[in-house]
User: What shape does this take?
Amino acid sequence: MHAVEAENVWKYFGDYPALRGASLQVNKGACLALLGRNGAGKTTLLRILANLSRPGKGEVRLLGLASHTPEARRRIGYLGHGIGVYDDLSAVENLILFGQLLNLDNPRETALNALERVGLSRVKDGLAREFSRGMRQRLAVARAFLHDPELLILDEPFTSLDDRAVAVLQKLLQDAQSRGATIIMSTHQIREAMELATDVALLERGKVAFAGPQTVVMLADPGWLYRNHGAPE
Amino acid sequence: MREKLTYALGILGTLVMLFNLNTIFGDLPDEAMQGTIFRIIFIHVPAAINADIFLFAALCASVAFLAKKNFLYDSISVACIEVATMLLLLNLVTGSIWGRNQWGIWWAWDLRMTSQLMCFLLYLGYLLVRPAIAEPTQRATMSAFISIFAFADVPLVLMAIRLPNVKTQHPGPVLETGNLAPVYQGPFALGILALFLLGTALVLVRLHQETSRREIDSLRRELHSF
Amino acid sequence: MRAGFAAAFAIARKDLQTELRTRESLTASLSFSLVILVLFSFAFDLGREELYAISGGLLWLVYSFAGALIVNRSFARELPNDCLDVLVSSPAPGWAIFLGKTVAAFFLLLIVELVSLPFFGLFYNISWWQSPGTLLLVIFLATWGIAVVGVAFSAVTVNIRLRELMLPVLLYPMLIPLLLGAIGTTTALFTRDPEALKSMGSSIQLMIVFNLIYTSLSLYIVEFILIV
Amino acid sequence: MDPIAVANNLRFLFYGYTAGFLILLIFVLTLVSRGRKIDSELARLKALVEDKERPS
Assistant: This one.
C-alpha cells in the first residue's frame, strides 16, 4: 500500500485545467520533493491532497483511505503558505484548539510537549500576535506536527523561514522520517529539497513529468531534472 | 445549430406574441369591471409564470452543479436567473401601472406584490454578487449556494406575508379557480407560450455568452501561467 | 458525530474567546446599535400610540443591522494567516465548523441585543419587560435565524471583493420572512393588543420553520462551499 | 363606464404595454452589447495566446 495514491487527477479553474491528469504514488516512509516551476500546479495538487480542494476528475487515496474521510485527515499534517495560527490566542491555546479539532485524548499535554519540541515552552502563554516572525513560524511548525502525523504535506516549507525555524523544521522532519512517516513537500529551491528527499517528482503543466528515487546525478546537478524531463522553455 | 435554434425560438416567440397582441387588442371584448385596462394581464401574469419556471430551472441547475461540478449547469443557472429577474421586473412594473389605474396608487404592500418584490430583490442580490467573485469555480459554487437559499426563501416569504396583520388587495388567482372566461383563455395561454419561447431564446444567448466568458477566464489564466 | 460536536464546541469557544479578547465586532456592533437608536429618535417624532405600533420594527431593524456587523466577521476572522485552510483540512467536518461559528455568532449577537434592549426601553419609554419569557423566546428564535443565514453568507462572501457591502445585499432580503415574524410578535408583546397576541402563534411557527429549513440546508451544503 | 375612465384606462394600458416591451427591448440590447464586448475580448485574448505560443 502506498502512503499517497493520486490517480489521473484533474483540477479545473473554470475551463482552465490547472492539473491535467496528474498521477503520483508515494511509498510509505518516503520523503518526496515535489518540484516544478511556478504555475505548474504544485500548490493545487497539495491542496487536493490536504482536502482543501476537490479534484474535478480522478481519485486520491491517503494511507489507503479516501482523502476526504476524517480518518485520513486525522493522520495528516498540513503546512501551507500561511502559518495557520490565531493571532489572538496564546501559543498553548492555539495548539490546544487544534488538538481538540484532531480529537486528541489529552490536548493540553500534547500541546505543551509540542511547544517543548520547538523551543517555545517559556513563552507558551504569550499571544501569537506578540511573537516575532521566527517564533510564529515555529509555532506553525509545532501545529503541523502536533499529532505526530503519518503523512506530512508541506507547501514550500522553507521559503520564508528564519534560520532557527529551518533548524527546528529539519529536526522534526528527520524525527518524523525515523518513525516512519511519509513526507511530501513542494519546493522550487532544489538544493534544499535534495538534502532530505528520498524521492523526487517533477510537475510540468499540470502533469507529473518525472517521478522516481533521488539519484546522485540530481544531487550533483540540480538542473538535470528540468533539462531531461521538463518541458522546453 | 445553437444559433439557428436561438433565432428560431426568438422569431417564433415574436410571431406568437404579435399574433396574440392582434387578438388581444382586436378581437377580445372588454372585461365588465375593469374595462380595457384588464388586457395588461396578458403580459403581466405570463411574465410572472415564466419567471417562476426559469427560477425553478435555475434551482435544478444549481443543485446539479453542486453534485456534478459541470460548468454548463452554472451557466444555465445564471442565464435562467437573469432572464427570470428581467421577467419579474416586467411583472412588477406592469402590475404597478395597472394598480395606479385601478387603485389610484403605484404600490400597495399587499401579499403578492410584496412577495414578488422580495423575490426580485433576492435574485438581484445573486446577480450583483456573482461578478465580485473572481475565481470561476468559486463563483459557480457560491452562486449555486445563493440560488438554492433564495429559492428556499420564496415559500417562506409567501407564508410570512400571509401572517394575520398583512392585508391584501390583489385580485385573486385566475388560473386555479377557473375564474377566467373561456374567450380569454386562448390568448392567456399564448401569452405564456410567447414569453416562454422568447425567454428560452434569451437564455440560450446568455448561455453562449457565459461559455465565451469562461473561455476568456481560462485564456487569461493560460497567459499568466508557464 | 461526537467528534464533530466536540470540534464545533472548540471552534465556538475559540471564536468567543478571541472576540471577547479583542472586542472587534462586539464594540462596533454595540455602539452602532446605540447610535441607530438615537438616530431613530431624531428621525421620528411620534406619539405614544404610534411609537408602540412601530416598536417591534424599530427594535429588529437595529438588531439586524447589528447582526450584519457580527456575522461579517465570522468567517473573515479566519482569513489572517490562512487559518481557514487549517480548519478545513482538519478532521472536523464542514458542518461542525459551520455550527461552531454559528453558535459563537448567536451568543455575540445575543450579548449586543440584551445590552441594547434596556436602552431601547429607556429612549423610547417602552415597557418591554411585560412577558419576558415569550420575548426571550422570540429573540432566541430570530437571533438564531440571523446567525445561521448570516454565517452561511459570511462563508460565501469571505473571499470576494467588497465583502462588507455584498453581505447585507444578500442577507437582508433572505431574512425578510424571519424579520416579519419577529417584528409582528415583538410589537404584539409590547402593545399587549389582545388581537395581535392571539395571532402570535403563527409568527412563531414561521420563525421555527425558517430556522429548521435554513439550519439543515446550511449544515448540509456548507461542505460544498468550504471545499471548492 | 364614463368616457374619462375609458380614456384613462386606455392610456394606462398603453403605458403598461410600452413599459413591458421597453424592459424586454432594453434587456435584449444590453445582452447584445455585452455579447459584442465578450466576443471582441475573446478574439483579443486568443490572438495574445497565439502570439505567446509562437516560438520566438
